[in-house]
Amino acid sequence: MLAPSPPLSIRGLFKEYVPGKPVLRGLDLDVEAEGITAIIGPSGTGKSTLLRCINRLVEPTSGEIRLHGENLAALRGRALRLARRRIGMVFQEYNLVERLSVMENVLCGRLGHVALWRVFLRRYPQADIDRAFALLDAVGLPEHATRRADALSGGQRQRVGIARALMQRPDLLLADEPTSSLDPRTAVEVLELLARLTGEVGVPVLLNIHNVELARRFARRVIGLSEGAVIYDGPPDGLRDAHLRAIYGGEDWL
Ligand SMILES: Nc1ncnc2c1ncn2[C@@H]1O[C@H](COP(=O)(O)OP(=O)(O)OP(=O)(O)O)[C@@H](O)[C@H]1O
């Protein structure tokens, strides 16, 4: 029997911001249906560019990015907007609307689905409101629904960011350094939450992360990038010092 095809499959992805200077150099990568796939690699190696090519915040120069078979790299207009609704994103700096309540920020995850007049009049369908409350419960913030986002701590903000992304009912969740602004304990708590909740709803996660130990601890699979190419692609326990030297360069820091 044939193995099921991975939900996200990237082939030959190139990205040049400056002609002749590719940041991503013909990247091939599959993201499996379950768990967290962590991307590690030095600063400037193209990790954020990769995530932003997937949701088309950045235009790929060439290559294919297939989500359940559909080539995202080729979509335009309405088709692209519909595809983006299926991809949740969690950001390093949370990207909440600071002056809105926690509840409204979570409901923002439904923006692509709900009629604009409802958003404008703040009249979301009851089913969405019920789901937003359930998600706030799940991320441990049930009593914070009416607080303004700018009154929350970093860890609480990122919990709201996770709830907002899950509100989309995404097919794929992209997380770009979601814990780099958090203290070590809060970072672990946020990743535990991300792993648990995405595991419960069966959403695969592609996670950019600088902290190799956290990548090892939470990912099912680690991809090591260097200069826009894949240096390591395998399970966390197969990642050796030699791989880390090849990914990050140098000898004396390990
Ligand atoms: N909008 C842009 N215009 C021009 N160059 C860019 C742009 N965005 C990123 N770059 C360049 O592309 C390269 C890769 O950047 P990217 O942010 O993807 O790396 P990264 O691996 O995510 O780095 P970090 O870990 O520091 O976030 C860098 O050299 C960066 O300067």
UniProtKB/TrEMBL annotation:
This protein's UniProt keywords: ATP-binding, Cell membrane, Membrane, Nucleotide-binding, Translocase, Transport
Name of the featured protein: Phosphonate ABC transporter ATP-binding protein
Keyword Translocase applies: yes
SUPFAM superfamilies: P-loop containing nucleoside triphosphate hydrolases
NCBIfam families: ABC_phnC (TIGR02315)
InterPro entries: AAA+_ATPase, ABC_transporter-like_ATP-bd, ABC_transporter-like_CS, ABC_transpr_PhnC, MetN_ABC_transporter-like, P-loop_NTPase
ABC transporter domain segment(s): 8-252
Gene3D superfamilies membership: P-loop containing nucleotide triphosphate hydrolases (3.40.50.300)
MF (Gene Ontology): ATP binding
Gene that encodes the chain: phnC
PANTHER family (alphabetical): AMINO ACID IMPORT ATP-BINDING PROTEIN (PTHR43166), PHOSPHONATES IMPORT ATP-BINDING PROTEIN PHNC (PTHR43166:SF6)
